[in-house]
Design brief:
mainly alpha, elongated
């Protein structure tokens, strides 16, 4: 487990996931990575507009950091990190950020809501957890830059 965590930050040539990846697996990771991340960007863009706007920010106050900082962290997790995932650059780290953001959304911001309200956050959390585990695949900047399936 420690090695997998350290792989998030490593540029080591040794890959801890699959040494040989089939074309089907490579294509499936690419499609999943792009499709799910584009959907997440769609959720993050209105928050980016809200952050850049001139109106008072009313947002979930994560760990008492204040609504503005909490919203900025949410924009990082829902807009910036998915763009990194689409490109396949530091995709595992970016997927971890999105996964954490979705965990905060499901179990923090929507903690008192019925399951119907937090269901989508939980689905995204699991999908990005898988992306964090699987890595970006061979069709990615990580593979091109570091010559490995995941980085």
């Amino acid at each position: 487990m420690k090695n997998r965590f350290l792989a998030l930050f490593s540029t080591n040539k040794e890959n801890w996931h699959a040494k040989e990846q089939t074309n089907y697996e490579t294509n499936a990771l690419l499609i999943l990575r792009i499709f799910v991340s584009l959907l997440m960007v769609r959720h993050g863009f209105p928050k980016l507009e809200k952050l850049m706007g001139s109106e008072d920010i009313k947002f979930y106050n994560f760990l008492g950091l204040g609504p503005s900082i909490s919203l900025a962290l949410c924009v990082l997790g829902e807009f910036v990190a998915p763009i990194f995932i689409i490109l396949g650059f530091r995709a595992r780290l970016a997927a971890g950020l999105v996964m954490f953001t979705m965990a905060v959304a499901a179990y923090g911001a929507h903690s008192g809501d019925p399951i119907d309200e937090k269901e989508l956050s939980m689905v995204y959390m699991v999908l990005f957890a898988y992306m964090m585990y699987a890595g970006p695949g061979k069709i990615s900047l990580d593979h091109w830059l570091f010559k490995q399936t995941g980085a």
